[in-house]
Amino acid sequence: MLEELKEIDNIYDLMALCGMVVLRLDKEQPYDFSAFRDGLYEDLYDAVEEYCFAKEDRGSGKAFAELKKYIIGFLKNDISIERCFAVMKCIDELVAVEYPCCLLESQRVISYPCMNKRFCEEIRIIPKNRRNFFIKKEAEMKERNRSEYDFLRKERECKCTVLDGEIINYIIWDKENIEKYPFTVYYLSEKHFITKHFIETEKLTFAIIPFIDEKLEDVFEVNLENKIFEISKMKPAMEQKLKERYQEIYQKCKEKNIDFLIFPEMLMTEYIVNAAERSKDFGSPWLVINGSMWKERVNRTWFMDSRGEKILTYCKKEPFIYKETYKEHLDRTKNQEYAILEIENFGRIGIAICKDLVNEKIKMFHKYIGTNLLFVPAYTESMDLQSAAGELSRDYKCIVIVANACSAIKKSNKHDKKERIGFISLPAKNNSDRTEGIITYYQDGCRKGCCDYCGGKLISIIFDRENAFEFGTSYMIEKSSF
User: Fold this and answer.
1) What is the 3-state secondary structure (H, E, C) of 25-65?
2) Is 277 helix (H, G, I), strand (E, B) or coil?
3) pLDDT digit string (tens) for 371-388?
4) In this predicted model, what pLDDT tens digit does every residue of 438-469 receive, in sequence order?
5) Which of 71, 234, 318, 410 could make an SS bond with 239 (beta carbons 3.0 to 4.6 A apart)?
């Protein structure tokens, strides 16, 4: 370990190296972290504190060189689990999250797999999501109402490793979870125009587009063989129709003050997505979740900003069953990676596609990473997504937005019956049972004109209203069509 220590040059590689030792030794003989005696390590605490002051005066390089010299002496004669944990504990407590300078100054989307540069196949260090809109708004509500209690139910703990319960500011991923959850964080700093918008907003407004009322086989050329479902391509006439509808919706959203424009699963192609008008001065929508497109056994969604710049993509992992017989044929070698959009001081945004939401492994990833908003483009007549969304909302403070296609819902013979298309699931309010709030949107008047256009649904969650608690939460909900 000491030879590896001599080679590292930054605080996160130091933390990662010590974390590797802790995880390895704990696996050999479990350590009782409650017995840790921090009073024995005051000199170490002072050395890390001095590093924090010195990097401001002399720069991170010189400051870290001095700290490393101390750590080498500290561990030279006793590379124990407790001493390595002590180093991690002091860094966790004293060192503010140090994003690389390029991240802090950039107005672009920056991607990173972890904070450490070395040992990435063995251990990864990711900042915990401790500065998000839930925390900010709850603090404001408590102060405004002079309350000592939070407005939302306390979220359950979800430990990725044994260190997660002991380290406050970071998630520590071990080799097992790194292999299980390969992921990339796409980061927007405070300099980015999207970040500036979300930091100032007092509500979140979602434009949800059911998009089309046509049967799947009328939209695509579908191959059904040996209980396998595949899409070869979208029919040209339908692709042109959806392109024009997409353009119309995109144009209409310019007149609305919305934050997210969300389309359902599958009903996209690159031709359709590239049809939107691009403008650097375009103010809204700020983020677009382009449903998904099915191509070469990959079901992929595009997440882009209002200027048409692609931020990230995500591939579906859990196939659906078509006509109760045919299983969606997905190439699992092409769709392993997860993706998270992290907006500084706002929170983490994730994507799951339809049946992904009922996959326990996928839900576990979003619990570990601390997803605040989870968008779920869907094409399903099943209502089984709601229980999975409810679990993430009531227990882990995640707003789940299920954007379904109108054509996925069976037509009712009753003209007055409104069929549910999709929903938004909200965290549970404090001093209540663990029942999440559900905002439902239906097929209604907009369906009558669906052959000409898709009216879409506008749903706003307003954070600054007092005494207007609906759906078991401390938010006020506004719903409308547009």
Assistant:
1) HHHHCCCCHHHCCHHHHHHHHHHHHHHHHHHHHHCHHHHHH
2) coil
3) 999 999 999 888 789 999
4) 888 887 655 555 555 566 888 888 765 543 33
5) 234
